[in-house]
Amino acid sequence: MLQDQTFLRIPGPTPIPPSVQHAMSQPMIGHRGSEAKELIQRIRPRLKTIFGTEQDVLMIAGSGTAGLEAAVVNSAMPDDEVLVIVTGAFGDRFKKICQSYQLNTHVIDVPWGEAVNPDKVAAYLNQHPNIKVVFSTFCETSTGVLNPIQDIAKVVHQTSDALLVVDGVSCIGGVECKMDEWGVDVLVTGSQKALMLPAGLTFVAASDRALNKMKENPQPRFYLNLNTYHDKLTDYSTPYTPALSLLFGLEQVLTLIEEEGFDKVVERHEMMKNMTRAACRALHLPLLTTDQDASPTVTAVQPNDVDPENLRSIVKQEFGLSLAGGQQHLKGKIFRIGHMGYSSPADVLQTISLLEIGLHKAGKQVEFGTGVAAAQAIYTQLQK
Amino acid sequence: MLQDQTFLRIPGPTPIPPSVQHAMSQPMIGHRGSEAKELIQRIRPRLKTIFGTEQDVLMIAGSGTAGLEAAVVNSAMPDDEVLVIVTGAFGDRFKKICQSYQLNTHVIDVPWGEAVNPDKVAAYLNQHPNIKVVFSTFCETSTGVLNPIQDIAKVVHQTSDALLVVDGVSCIGGVECKMDEWGVDVLVTGSQKALMLPAGLTFVAASDRALNKMKENPQPRFYLNLNTYHDKLTDYSTPYTPALSLLFGLEQVLTLIEEEGFDKVVERHEMMKNMTRAACRALHLPLLTTDQDASPTVTAVQPNDVDPENLRSIVKQEFGLSLAGGQQHLKGKIFRIGHMGYSSPADVLQTISLLEIGLHKAGKQVEFGTGVAAAQAIYTQLQK
């Protein structure tokens, strides 16, 4: 196998664009000097488009889970009743964080592979009028489901005065998001998915309503106290040492997204989803989710005639192609193809062509080229 | 289009592996210090495998043409009769260099797209017994032809006492080469092709017979005097300032080649050639060369129903995919696909899938996936 070549097609971390890699390698600067301030000043307004908000997007050195915990400890008061919508492993993580803080935690469990039905959320909130915060994942990375956040926000605000907190880690930057318009109160994401950076930076934006509650929230917290991040950002700074090289990279990521046009970025992700799904269908690979529930950033496949772990191992060894496996009870039952961030229709075509060879080597009857052809047809038909 | 993504599938320069890019960015060192000496000492023995020689491979800061000129001015004396075998644009360059030095230059002109027939060389040398040097390209980049150097060497030495000088710029590192065994007297290559580096370094190896002639050669020359490079390399040094960052990169290139195994590297190039040719046939794209004459590093395609320049422009704009056009009288008539160096079967599959879309957009009737399927079939059948 050609040395030094790998194809990272997992739902995060995702490949880093060369110009971002280059930007991250610029010489270090002091984080309390004018250069750092100017860098944050340049970045600050440009994240808002991606979140669909006029609010500030706070940046914390930490992984996505730090962002999720920040969302929990700032938006929920110690005696709050909260509702967590669990559609997979990352909904489950929200639940675990809430339980760690001994919050009175209600759970709506949705079968893995399905999105939550907003009517169910409405019914639950009607029955439990004391719920103060609703937690939902946007893209459930473990299943490739995109929950209908716009509709969830609508029913949450129609049926309650709860805050809606959303985990957007594996989709923000690759999907349309109108935080303010939809009424999302807290939105979290991470750097290593559609934002094309290494892990180590998490982003949190909050509505005025959420910010007001945070100010009065007695929940003990220090590093993850969003009030301090908010106050410092007003002065183009951070309360604690910022992950500067990631900020260098972030500035270049924003430039790449703006050069392509964020609406085009969203279209590209939609295209990659449609190409991947059409290819899997043509190859008789059952998809875990319906078209309506499918995320533009990751596709879960549940093959009935090959072992997903064997398939993953074959393409990894043969081509350096990394696909993701299943998590928790889906381990060994599905594999997942990431198509987000620094990933294009050309990459999808390559991934499918390698997958076809992998399936053949795993013993599945494959008519070579049929998956690729289905994806090419989608590309040429849907292209704007 | 996804920003910052390009697919360089031309016959040089070729993509640089990330670890080589990284190696080239290490801090500069003095070129007369012990570190540089140690670097050259580490590199020196490792190039020999690739050339198939026990001789030293001299390294000159300059592009491939500097290497070709060095070959001419060192191997041909001012009053020598020389023979140049011209099978394309780079044979033509050898001719022009010889003519610049007012050498008495004989030429065998071969139709572009064909390899030279060794019998023709034998006949020519029999008729012109005073020829002292024969010049031939190994891979003719402009047409994708691989000349049969082993057979040419045989007839040159059977019918004359001429030196055989070979331009191996666009294939050495990607094809089997047995310089000593075959009887090649001077072999030249460049850094930016199968050796996976940026341009700026050229390599020349010479047989004892050629080295002896060089020592007595009165041809005026300074920078390109190979005697000085040869003497200095014995002391792990160079006569003039070496292109150090390219040497940093070269060391890593040699590591990558050794890790893969040079025989596996050669097999990979052969595989990429066969995959590309099978795909073109399946897509009804006429190939410029026969299977026997085809180079493992570059494939020339002569489509009869699309304009190659339009096709190239479509795939460049649509996917950032660079294919090469034709040179001189083949301009506008062919396009060329590079598959050498940091390039894999996975890259060939991707290139073909993008080419299929490009052909469709250029107005050709294409059954999507058929080129990819043909290449996949070759891959799975031929794989060792």
Automatic annotation (TrEMBL), chains A, B:
Domain Aminotransferase class V: 28-328
Alphabetized UniProt keyword annotations: Aminotransferase, Pyridoxal phosphate, Transferase
Family that this chain belongs to: Belongs to the class-V pyridoxal-phosphate-dependent aminotransferase family.
Phylogenetic classification of the source organism: Bacteria, Bacillati, Bacillota, Bacilli, Bacillales
Name the UniProt record assigns to this protein: Aspartate aminotransferase
PROSITE patterns the record matches: AA_TRANSFER_CLASS_5
InterPro entries: Aminotrans_V_dom, Aminotrans_V_PyrdxlP_BS, PyrdxlP-dep_Trfase, PyrdxlP-dep_Trfase_major, PyrdxlP-dep_Trfase_small, SP_NH2Trfase/AEP_transaminase
Co-factor requirement: pyridoxal 5'-phosphate
